Amino acid sequence: MSAPRQWQDEVLAGPGGAMTDEVGVITGPLTLRTTAHPDGSVRFAIQYTDADEWYTLTGSPVASGDPYALHRAALDAVRAGGGAGVPAPPAR
């Protein structure tokens, strides 16, 4: 079985921040990690940059989709703020 693929970037949350399942909205400098699993699911975790705790970005996981495109879309959503969660994958 192949190992998961990951993308990780720092992002400054826009006004209203990013919504997490565990603690609600987080704001400020954040780090987003997107992991594509061998089963096709894509999971999103977010943290305050340089913190130890990771949180689930609301809407994670998604069942399928281009993981890199989903990572870029999630970064854009967090930059926009407004309690951003995982953007829905485009319809096929």
Describe the structure.
With 92 residues, the chain is of the alpha+beta class. The chain has 1 helix and 6 strands; from the N terminus they run ββββββα. The strands form 2 sheets. Strands 1-4-5-6 form a 4-stranded antiparallel beta sheet, covered by helices on one side. The protein has a two-stranded antiparallel ribbon with strand order 2-3. The longest helix has 14 residues. The chain starts with a strand and ends in a 12-residue tail after the last helix.
List keywords for this structure.
92 residues; alpha+beta; four-stranded antiparallel sheet; two-stranded antiparallel sheet; 1 helix
| Contiguous runs where pLDDT drops below 50 for at least 5 residues | none
Q: What's the shape?
A: globular
Largest beta-sheet characterization = 4 strands, antiparallel
Strands, count: 6
Which structural class do you get from the secondary structure elements?
alpha+beta
The ordered H/E elements are EEEEEEH
Biggest β-sheet: strands ordered side by side in the sheet: 1-4-5-6
Number of helices: 1
Strand content: 25-35%
The N- and C-terminal alpha carbons lie at a distance of 27 Å
The whole-number mean of residue pLDDT values reads 93
Secondary structure: helix percent:
10-25%
If you compute it from the alpha carbons, what radius of gyration comes out, rounded to the nearest whole angstrom? 12 Å
